Structure of Alpha-ketoglutarate-dependent dioxygenase AlkB:
Amino acid sequence: MADEIALRRPLAEARRIELGQGAWLDVLPGWLAGSDPLFEVLVRTVPWRAERRHMYDNEVDVPRLLAHYGEGDDLPHPVLTEAREALSTHYAAELGEPFRTAGLCFYRDGRDSVAWHGDRIGRGSREDTMVAIIGIGEPRPLLLRPHGGGPTRVRQPLGHGDLVVMGGSCQRTWDHCVPKTSRPVGPRISIQFRPRGVG
Ligand SMILES: O=C(O)CCC(=O)C(=O)O
Ligand SMILES: [Fe+2]
């Protein structure tokens, strides 16, 4: 059933990209099947809110819609609970704790974006940790470069059920962003799972 919403590949098939400085990126294209029907459910049912605030090191007004699910909150679809549990199991030894929170971002079109940053609110600024992201809807590239600037070193498209996991020192030694684009692009939702105290 092409439209069934389910995880379809073992996480062991993820490919690891060593970024250097103790940072890495695991990539698993098409982890989630049925991402289009899931997208429709999330657009309709998630309590999206617009947010203008300062976040991360230096900026930013937030040109995208957000929703946050803390520990113990029910996630907006059971497949997201399954995904969080599968990630917690697969990375248990390496991470040493489960993924606990979920942040959802809705990029309505190419004007929605997130500026260069590391997830350094909390423990990501001091410790190795992991942030797992599933992209659904239209792919938008996640760019990575070493913290402090310089050219983009990785450009990883994320959409239609693709998974990336940023790990090791990635949040403090590297920055990531989803740039604006003037190309016509459809909407995209990003789902990020993080351990306790990582933001
Ligand atoms: O949209 C994405 O895939 C990345 C989002 C992100 O980096 C964040 O919310 O911290
Ligand atoms: Fe981030």
About this structure: DSSP finds four helices and 14 strands in the chain. The longest helix spans residues 78-90. The helical segments are 35-45, 78-90, 92-95, 170-173. The pocket of fe (ii) ion (ligand 2) is lined by residues 117, 119, 176 (CB under 6 Å).
